[in-house]
Design brief:
mainly alpha; elongated; 177 residues
Length: 177
């Protein structure tokens, strides 16, 4: 992990490198770093925002999860997708309902894909219907994310109801329509 952080920091310019290093230090603090990570995610943009949101997701602190849940409703380009992705990085099972709503919404494809992928990691039986609906979408990225989520649910030993299993198999046979 340390070598990856060093490589990533080396690819950034000095101000970005300093901000990324600060975010890494705050993430290492876990709960103690959440308040400052929220401030960075709120005030920053671009790479710094992305790093801060991901750090909040890995923190799995209730305050971090609450902040990320609020970000799912943001219309600003990419923020909802980043928040959904971040929620899938930690133990955010409490956010599964909101992730399911984003997954079946008419919102940005990137946010829907990220929500479906996150549901594969934190979702459960109540969210399977939303994930299954993704298999019927016209957008290939949404269909692929739904299939991925169902596969992840299976890896987590969540049993798929027979109708959903049949739809997943049918989607796999159809390929990319």
């Amino acid at each position: 992990m340390t070598s990856l952080v060093i490589v990533l920091l080396g690819a950034l310019g000095a101000p970005d490198r300093d901000r990324a290093a600060e975010i890494a230090r705050l993430e290492a603090l876990r709960a103690a770093g959440v308040e400052r990570l929220v401030a960075i995610a709120t005030e920053a943009s671009g790479r710094a925002r992305s790093l801060a949101l991901r750090a909040l997701g890995r923190a799995s602190d209730p305050r971090a999860i609450a902040y990320l849940r609020k970000q799912l409703g943001r219309s600003e380009a990419g923020v909802a997708a980043l928040a959904a992705e971040a929620l899938g990085l930690g133990d955010a099972t409490a956010a599964a309902g909101e992730l399911a709503r984003v997954a079946v919404s008419a919102g940005a494809v990137e946010a829907r894909v990220a929500a479906l992928r996150a549901l594969g990691r934190v979702g459960g039986a109540p969210e399977m219907a939303a994930v299954g609906r993704g298999l019927d979408e016209r957008e290939p990225r949404v269909r692929a994310a739904a299939a991925y989520a169902l596969a992840q649910l299976g890896r987590r030993r969540q049993s798929l109801p027979e109708p959903l299993r049949a739809r997943l198999l049918r989607a796999a046979e159809d390929g990319d329509r």
